[in-house]
Amino acid sequence: MTRTGDFTSFAYVANSGTQDISVLGLRPDGDLVALASVAVQRPIHTGRSMVLAPSPDHRRLYAAYLSGPDQAMVAAFAIDAETGNLRRIGATPLAAPSAYLSTDRSGRFLFSASYAGNLVTVNAIGADGAVGEALQVIPTASMAHCIIADRSNRFVLHTSLGGDLIYQRRFDPQSGRLSPNEPPVVSARAKAGPRFIVFAPHADFAYVINELDGAVDVHRFAATTGTLDPALQTISALPDPFTGKPWCADIHIRPDGRFLYVSERTSSVITAFAVDRASGRLSRIACHETVRQPRTFAIDPAGSWLLAAGQLADRVVCHAIDARSGGLTARREYPVGKNPTWIEVLAPA
Q1: Do the Cβ atoms of 45 and 68 come closer than 8 Å?
Q2: Domain map (residue ranges) of the chain
Q3: Among 117, 169, 188, 329, which is disulfide-ready with 156 (CB 3.0 to 4.6 Å)?
Q4: Is the distance from CB of 136 to CB of 145 less than 8 angstroms?
């Protein structure tokens, strides 16, 4: 029998093909142990993408999925702090299929961005972790793809991949309502395709991965106004040489803010960057081969391991992160369910 002390953290992999969540324990040496496979829906109605979001206290996990051709849902799970296993709390309809889930910094509200529905939504979260009905549904330009709150929990950014836009909103943490900031949008380059955003953990910078041109944009984020300055740097995440169509996917920053990583699906690489924490600027370290078609990856809370899931491999590979250089060394691969589309790595609550 496994115990919390056996693992530094737990990994949760959403498998859209089998509509389940693989639960893995991460040992201090980087080894992964399969602990459980938790069904999100049975029978499986659709194999379309499934995404995850944890609560800030790591006591809950939310999974967005489709229960039928026209019905988007979000399931809430309680996380057992001892075993890492999941207990279903309930499921709630969403306004549209979700490409991205996150909570506000208090864990009282759930944000969703819908690529297919061209909108973002806000739902209340109850004291028991269950998701309530939508409080707000906001239309956007095409292909909404990400929505996150800033550290102060007073502002929210969300992207439109098809509109080449980043929306800037004020957030009321009491009511959960979003309102346009001034200015309400920031434009990206034409056909860049802004996909996901991450904030630097200890400084006022935001990093945007553009799916369609394969570049990372670095923005200074004004913490007092919740707005982005024009990009101070644009740097390619594509390997050299690169052939084919850019298809960048995920972006994460190491918890200490020193290194940033981006996945690219056409070439199946993860590109590592060093972060100048004073200026926010990036310098490329290397492009590292990884599991086939890495749509999703995550970094463990200690910043020691990067876990990448391959959509076409149905596997997760663990990479060791060099604490000095930021480089990656691939270790073992581990089987998960079919078509993994999201991964979260969480310390026990």
Answers
A1: yes
A2: 4-346
A3: 169
A4: no
Instruction: Give the other-Cβ count within 10 Å of 1's Cβ.
Output: 5
pTM over 0.90: yes
121: which strand partners?
112, 137
Architecture, CATH, for domain 4-346? 7 Propeller (2.130)
CA distances in angstroms from 195 to 124, 266, 310, listed in the order given:
25, 16, 19
- CB neighbourhood size of 10 (10 A): 30
Per-residue pLDDT of the chain (349 residues; tens, 9 = 90+): 345 568 999 999 999 999 999 999 999 999 999 999 999 998 888 878 899 999 999 999 999 999 988 899 999 999 999 999 999 999 999 999 999 999 999 999 999 999 999 999 999 999 999 999 999 999 999 999 999 999 999 999 999 999 999 999 999 999 999 999 999 999 999 999 999 999 999 889 999 999 999 999 999 999 999 999 999 999 999 999 999 999 999 999 999 999 999 999 999 999 999 999 999 999 999 999 999 999 999 999 999 999 999 999 999 999 999 999 999 999 999 999 999 999 999 999 8
Helices (H) and strands (E) in the chain, counts: 0, 29
- Residue 139: count of CB within 10 angstroms of its CB: 10
Q: How far is CA 349 from the centre of its chain?
A: 19
Contact between residue 145 and residue 154 where contact means Cβ atoms under 8 Å apart:
no
